């Protein structure tokens, strides 16, 4: 895919049309129109973009008749959808009806056992058995047993050790944040003897089919998750993770290591294991003892009955350094409902220790940091994080770049060490950053900024209709669908709506929206990492402020990391103007969204759900559970 702002590349009309058809979130820069598209590119900017040139009032051009113009034309961001889980189907066992035993098994790997004859006899009783399963699992079940007409889970007239191990693993599903009821199988009574051998055989073959169906569901859920993220919203973009369902049953039929195999279907990274440990700890813990109003807003001199609760939590978690500095004050004012000026340094110190701006104002973010979230909220965040990790590769790779949007951070991780961690700015709630992963390809020095079509349509076009020469004066280049540069003033902007056959880009400069460099990992969302002139945004705690791209507080450090070089090299490279350097190593980048995430020591941190995505995923999980119950 070609980026609008990639070197001197101009996106052709066909590519623009395709981009519009996807409805992808365009990304790049921040600010209102006047701030965004100002003139003067030679002097240092006061904001992210240069201030506008002196205004004049040229006569507006009338829209050409039939030209598709329209003042309300906009390019919309992706949508969120009401999640609909696949309906379960009844497994059609008629295909397993007894037939004359073939001279050669259908599956070359199949070797009939002593129970093969009993199995072929037992399947005749499945005609009235109603077993519900996902369509692909129902299909795989019949295909496998047609080619391998024998029991996996039964030896003689009882459950074998494979079955016992499988049932135990399914019963422990909650330790992975899964729902045990989704995998429940009615187990025949151990050692039961029946005067009616046919009835016993009927019970065993039904157990065989039910356990195979639920084991396949478990293997799928462990590897891929319970929901399809791409069906939740256009902001999610994950490749398929194929699972050979028949292959799962073949493996289980020929191994005694059932537990090992099923557990291997889960992600095998340290982050997943740390979240499991946190989940177990939460499940065993009591509810929060001290609950502080999460909406508390308190400034020095003001009064609130919530303050003593907060002070109790601070005093409880004092380390030696903080205790020595503020222990006496906290002890003396522990029951105060008045936010005394003496307490301001305490609050500031606690805020700064938590990575916040130490302003001394007690607000919702300070309360969340000090009082934490409720047990129920933490449980949801961890269960959601476990589900989201199943959408990613089992091995996250090393080295890698990990961007966690709710934490507003980006890290470069290599050999289990966080070599770089920097603050980032991500998309506003109206221009959300997508959740996906890709591979870093190149670093552009002194880049051009190709203005996304959504910004051209939604923010530039309204002004261009009345002031068509504005882009010429502001230092932007306009090119047509063939890449020919034309004056902005020569375009009849009033003739266009949401489909504009022109590209706009900003030349490299200190005022360029992308700053001095950008780091590319080509994707259909046109999202990348870049520098920004708007440095003040990194001082804010809530940094969902961009059009969707990821702005880096330390772009030189990140560029040096992905290129495997030094910051001095990057500084020298920047002295020589516009240039591009390819990344020669395989470095995956995760533009991720986790409200619960462990650091490299395994300690799980919690973050605000800035885009309200956890609740949407919870709705999708609930919809899936509703379809799966009642189970047969």
Description:
- With 632 residues, this protein is an alpha+beta fold.
- It has 19 helices and 22 strands.
- Strands 5, 6, 7, 8, 9, 10, 15, 16, 17, 18, 19 and 20 form a twelve-stranded mixed beta sheet that branches. A four-stranded antiparallel beta sheet has the order 11-14-12-13.
- Strand 6 and strand 7 form a beta hairpin.
- Helix 9 packs antiparallel against helix 14.
- The two termini are 47 Å apart.
- Mean pLDDT, all residues: 84
What structural class should be given to the helix and strand makeup? alpha+beta
Number of helices: 19
Oligomer: single chain
β-strand amount: 5-15%
Give the low-confidence spans: 1-70
Key features of this structure:
single chain; 632 residues; alpha+beta; twelve-stranded mixed sheet; 19 helices; globular
Brief summary of the model shown:
33% of the residues lie in helices and 13% in strands.
How are the elements arranged and paired?
Elements: H1 13-22, H2 33-36, E1 89-90, H3 116-122, E2 132-133, H4 135-147, E3 154-155, E4 158-159, H5 161-171, H6 197-224, E5 236-237, H7 245-253, H8 258-264, H9 270-284, H10 307-316, H11 320-332, H12 344-353, H13 364-371, H14 375-389, E6 400-404, E7 409-414, E8 417-427, E9 435-439, E10 442-445, E11 449-450, H15 453-464, H16 470-474, E12 476-479, E13 485-486, E14 503-506, E15 517-520, E16 529-530, E17 544-546, E18 550-552, H17 555-563, H18 567-573, E19 579-582, E20 588-592, E21 596-598, E22 604-606, H19 613-628
Parallel strand pairs: 5-9, 6-20, 8-17, 16-18
Antiparallel strand pairs: 1-2, 3-4, 6-7, 7-8, 8-18, 9-20, 10-15, 10-19, 11-14, 12-13, 12-14, 15-16, 21-22
Helix pairs in contact: 4-7, 5-6, 5-8, 9-14, 10-11, 17-18
């Amino acid at each position: 895919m070609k980026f609008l702002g990639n070197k001197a590349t101009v996106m052709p009309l066909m590519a623009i049309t395709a981009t519009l058809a996807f409805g992808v979130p365009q990304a790049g820069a921040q600010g209102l129109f006047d701030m965004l598209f100002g003139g003067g590119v030679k002097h240092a900017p006061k904001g992210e973009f240069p201030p506008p040139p002196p205004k004049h009032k040229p006569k507006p051009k009338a829209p050409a008749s039939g030209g598709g113009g329209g003042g309300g034309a906009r390019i919309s961001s992706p949508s969120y959808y009401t999640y609909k889980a696949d309906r379960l189907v009844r497994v059609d066992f008629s295909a397993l009806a007894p037939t004359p035993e073939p001279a050669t098994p259908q599956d070359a790997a199949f070797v009939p056992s002593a129970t093969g004859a009993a199995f072929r006899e037992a399947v005749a009783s499945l005609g009235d058995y109603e077993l519900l399963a996902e369509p692909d699992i129902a299909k795989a079940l019949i295909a496998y047993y047609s080619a391998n007409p024998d029991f996996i889970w039964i030896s003689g007239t009882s459950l074998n050790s494979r079955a016992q191990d499988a049932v135990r693993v399914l019963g422990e599903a909650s330790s992975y944040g899964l729902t045990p009821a989704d995998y429940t199988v009615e187990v025949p009574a151990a050692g039961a003897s029946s005067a009616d051998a046919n009835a016993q055989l009927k019970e065993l073959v039904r157990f065989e089919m039910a356990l195979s169906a639920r084991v396949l569901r478990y293997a799928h859920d462990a590897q891929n998750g319970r929901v399809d993220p791409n069906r939740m919203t256009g902001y999610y973009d994950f490749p398929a993770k194929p699972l050979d369902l028949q292959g799962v049953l073949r493996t289980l039929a020929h191994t005694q290591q059932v537990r090992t195999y099923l557990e291997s279907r889960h992600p095998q990274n340290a982050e997943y294991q740390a979240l499991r440990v946190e989940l177990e700890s939460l499940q065993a813990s009591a509810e929060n003892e001290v609950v502080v109003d999460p909406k508390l807003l308190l400034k020095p001199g003001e009064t609130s009955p919530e303050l003593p609760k907060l002070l109790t939590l601070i005093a409880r978690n004092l380390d030696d350094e903080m205790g020595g500095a503020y222990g006496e004050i906290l002890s003396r004012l522990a029951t105060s409902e008045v936010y005394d000026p003496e307490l301001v340094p305490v609050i500031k110190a606690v805020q700064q220790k938590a990575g916040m701006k130490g302003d001394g104002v007690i607000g919702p973010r300070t309360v969340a940091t000090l009082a934490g979230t409720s047990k129920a909220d933490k449980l949801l965040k961890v269960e959601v994080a476990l589900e989201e990790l199943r959408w990613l590769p089992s091995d996250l790779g090393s080295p890698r770049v990990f961007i966690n949007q709710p934490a507003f951070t980006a890290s470069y991780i290599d050999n289990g060490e966080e070599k770089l961690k920097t603050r980032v700015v991500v998309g506003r709630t109206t221009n959300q950053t997508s959740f996906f992963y890709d591979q870093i390809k190149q670093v552009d020095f002194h880049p051009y900024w190709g203005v996304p079509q959504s910004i051209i349509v939604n923010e530039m076009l309204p002004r261009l209709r009345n002031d068509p020469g504005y882009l010429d004066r502001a230092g932007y280049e306009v090119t047509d669908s063939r890449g020919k540069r034309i004056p902005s003033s020569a375009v009849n902007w009033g003739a266009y709506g949401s489909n504009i056959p022109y590209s706009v880009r900003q030349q490299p400069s200190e005022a360029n929206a992308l700053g001095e460099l950008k780091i590319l990992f080509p994707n259909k969302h046109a999202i990348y990492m870049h520098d920004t002139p708007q440095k003040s945004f990194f001082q804010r705690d809530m940094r969902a402020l961009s059009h969707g791209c990821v702005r880096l507080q330390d772009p030189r450090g990140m560029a040096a990391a992905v290129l495997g070089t030094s910051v001095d090299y990057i500084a020298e490279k920047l002295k020589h103007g516009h240039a591009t350097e390819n990344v020669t190593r395989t470095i995956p980048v995760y533009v991720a969204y986790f409200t619960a995430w462990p650091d490299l020591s395994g300690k799980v941190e919690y973050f605000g759900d800035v885009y309200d995505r956890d609740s949407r995923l919870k709705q999708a999980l609930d919809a899936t559970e509703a379809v799966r119950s009642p189970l047969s």
